[in-house]
Design goal:
Elements (H helix, E strand, L loop, with lengths): L1 E2 L7 E9 L2 H17 L5 E7 L3 E5 L17 E5 L6 E3 L3 E7 L9 H18 L13 E3 L2 E11 L2 E9 L32 H16 L2 E3 L5
Parallel strand pairs: 2-3, 2-11, 4-5
Antiparallel strand pairs: 1-11, 3-7, 4-6, 7-10, 8-9, 9-10
Helix pairs in contact: 2-3
Length: about 220
């Protein structure tokens, strides 16, 4: 994929990966972030992938959001450093990890969160679906159902973690948690509105929207 627009002043490398173990992707993000903290001139990165079934929770999250006892989860559980509460990842869910130097954009975390929401809302617009924000929460909703979760970490204005868009996953994993700590709003996937939708096609739409919202050129590195 090469989204070419010579008017862009910024380039961002895009890595398209398939189903990738969560810890492998986490360690990759940490390495990219560390490199950019040491050398802020390095290019930005967008990673798009899927994960095997896994639960992730921010450090210190409330255990009341888990509907199983510790050690009795059917899937791996990882406590990580990001905003947001417990969430579930699995194949059929498109996960995006932007590693961006916000000094190139705007040093404002609220702005950055709204931009990530805009990327996903614009993606849904392509399918004539009206994605919405529901303040004070972070994420994107369709007909009062949450279809996208967002959680980030920023170190010296370098971002990691990101967003997860439910395209066509097996939703059963969400039944064992209170997704994002929100008990009165259900989660759903785009397959509820578009039965034959695939991650592959949505991936390209998300990439196009990301390039537009952040006004960048996405470039595939020679080695993926």
């Amino acid at each position: 994929m090469l989204i070419d627009n010579t008017s862009h002043q910024r380039q961002c490398w895009i890595y398209n990966r398939g189903v990738t173990p969560y810890l492998e992707a986490l360690n990759w993000q940490k390495a990219l972030l560390s490199e950019r903290v040491q050398d802020p001139s390095l290019h930005d990165v967008l990673i798009l992938l899927e994960h095997p079934p896994v639960y992730t929770l921010k450090q210190g999250t409330s255990r009341e959001f888990l509907k199983f006892a510790p050690g009795q989860s059917p899937y791996d559980v990882h406590f990580i450093e990001r905003g947001g509460e417990v969430t579930y990842h699995c194949p059929g869910q498109l996960v995006g990890y932007p590693i961006l130097n916000l000094r190139r954009y705007r040093q404002d975390l609220h702005w950055y969160l709204r931009q990530l929401e805009e990327v996903l809302i614009n993606t849904l617009n392509f399918y004539d679906l009206h994605g919405e924000r529901i303040p004070p929460f972070t994420g994107v909703w369709l007909e009062n159902c949450k279809v996208a979760a967002i959680g980030i970490k920023v170190s010296r204005w370098i971002t990691m973690h990101g967003f997860a868009l439910n395209v066509c996953p097996d939703m059963k994993g969400f039944e064992r948690i209170v997704p994002c700590g929100i008990s009165d709003k259900p989660v759903a996937s785009l397959a509820r509105w578009i039965p034959n939708i695939t991650v592959k096609e949505v991936r390209s739409r998300v990439a196009e929207s990301f390039a537009e919202v952040f006004d960048i050129e996405l470039v595939e590195p020679l080695q993926q």
